[in-house]
Amino acid sequence: MKNVNIFLLVLAVVVAASTSALSATKKGIAVKVPLIEWTAVASQKGWLQEEFGKYGATTELVDVNALKIPGVEASLLDKGDLNFAFRMQYPALQHKLNGLDAVVVWQSGTAPVRRNTLVVLKDAPINSVSDLKGKKAGIWRVSCPYFSAFEIFKIGGAPLDTDLKKGAVRFVNTSWFAANQALLAGKLDTISVHPSSYTATPLYTQNLVKEIATSVPNGAYVSGGGRTSIFAARDFAREHPELVKAYISAYEKTRKWILANPDAAATIIARELRMPKHVAKFGIVDSSSYNYVPGEKDWQSAVNSIKNFQEWAVQNGDDFLAKKRLSQAQIEQFVDRRFFRGGAYSIY
């Protein structure tokens, strides 16, 4: 009996020491957060620090956009130099299929049709998708605007070039940062953009372009591919679910304040991200806005949106998803149930 008591005492000490070590590890974490519009506001208001401080963690803002390198966010996430990424579902799915071991921890609801648009120069003699037959469309292939344009052109009867089949519209793979200049220089006839993104907003505020198409109403993009998502490396989400919850909580609190106080929020965003205030405000108030949208609470709905989107893309000739795709089970594992309604770390 004495030996049993000694064993239990030793076991208790070991468990206590392990718990203490785990707690100390948590307190030593500096969570690497992308410096984007809402995190800039959350940091300045102290809400980011408040949420992570509940678990003894600190935050470090990483200015991903300053690098101006397509795909850098996924690379940083994969190496652990960034703990969260904020992207729409199509590029998130592409990154996953290209080997990024990440999970979706938050997803928005369906996208508005103006989440993405096709624009041409203001005085161009182009007024519809059919007018673009034989002309050049500049779009970054590993991006959400690509799929929106792919669907617009297909439904509009002027399919885009793909690796699988030549279409009626010439596809030019062009990054966001180069597309504007190429359009303005007359090297491209149209580009596919998020109007409220800081790279595209100046085209609107300076009255340089006109919209000739929006995303297809009730289409695969607005119901699935264009949903915004927050994703995190699988290991980080598994080891620190409470920190994932802190990030989502900070987002929900901040986005509501931004929408209720667009002028004050735009002032902070303009200063912290080094952009004109009118550009920052356009990103808040325009109907295409994607940085401040409410989350999808239901895990099954989030999963179904990806399954249905991928299926449409495969059946309709998306060259990337025709070569690589997730199984039904892999999609269910891709969306982390713990952070949706009813999950152990849900805020809903």
Write the layout of secondary structure elements.
Elements: H1 2-27, E1 30-34, H2 37-45, H3 47-53, E2 58-62, H4 72-79, E3 85-88, H5 89-97, E4 102-107, E5 117-121, E6 136-139, H6 144-155, E7 170-173, H7 176-184, E8 190-193, H8 201-205, E9 209-214, H9 220-225, E10 228-233, H10 234-239, H11 241-260, H12 262-273, H13 277-285, H14 299-315, H15 319-323, H16 328-334
Parallel strand pairs: 1-2, 6-7, 6-8
Antiparallel strand pairs: 3-10, 4-10, 5-8, 5-9
Helix pairs in contact: 2-11, 2-12, 3-11, 11-12, 12-13
State the name of the first-level CATH class of the largest domain.
Alpha Beta
Radius of gyration: 22 Å
Predict the CATH topology of the largest domain: D-Maltodextrin-Binding Protein, domain 2
**Fraction in beta strands:** 5-15%
CATH architecture of the largest domain: 3-Layer(aba) Sandwich
Helix count, DSSP H or I runs of 4 or more residues: 16
Could you tell me how far the N terminus lies from the C terminus, measured between alpha carbons in angstroms? Answer: 49 Å
Number of strands: 10
Largest sheet: 5 strands, mixed
What class would the helix/strand composition place it in?
Answer: alpha/beta
The CATH homology group name of the largest domain: Periplasmic binding protein-like II
Mean pLDDT: 90
Shape: globular
Q: In which range does the helix fraction lie? A: 40-55%
Q: How many discrete structural domains? A: 2
Sheet with most strands: strand arrangement: 7-6-8-5-9
Low-confidence stretches: 1-25
Order of helices and strands: HEHHEHEHEEEHEHEHEHEHHHHHHH
